[in-house]
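Throughout this chapter, every protein is written as a compact record of paired, labelled lines. The reader may check this reading against the record printed directly beneath this paragraph:
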Amino acid sequence: MDLARGTAEERNRRAKKMMLWFGIVSLIMGFAGWTSAYIVSSKREDWISDLELPQAFFVSTFVILVSSVTYYLAKLAVGRNDQRKGTLYLLITLVLGISFIILQFMGFSQMLENGYYFTGPTSNIKMSYVFLIAAVHIAHLVAGLISLLVVLVQQVRNKYMPGQMLGMELGATFWHFLDFLWVYLILFMYFVK
């Protein structure tokens, strides 16, 4: 495919989508590095293999999966020119995204209550990885929430309509990626003892 072909608008769309995918690939590489280090570190003598992840992490997984569904429904609604439903689904996605972060911090509190710390004399390398991986994901989810807020404001200002939804499509792609990434991370931390 010749990237120089098409109208200026088509080239702009392709360029923005390509930049998003470059960002996603770099995030994948970063998390692949952390999960690889986790695997290598699991061979250490002080590795805790019987650690149970906090229940709040599993509840947050359900919440973030539902948020992907609501973002998808928002996109469908706007694609059908049902602006009211599109806005409602985006608001629900925002509430679910904030709920995910709250649940993650509840999970951190559960780990602290069980005597697991990120650093210090009572910390453990495995717990440090769990805290780090979850916290870095939260940081990226905050970026996703900012993106979602921009999409929501644009939606309220009637900037999206069938055939003109690039911002919403980019935001949804990033959001779905973050959701998929968390599902991978929780399964990874659950099964890699």
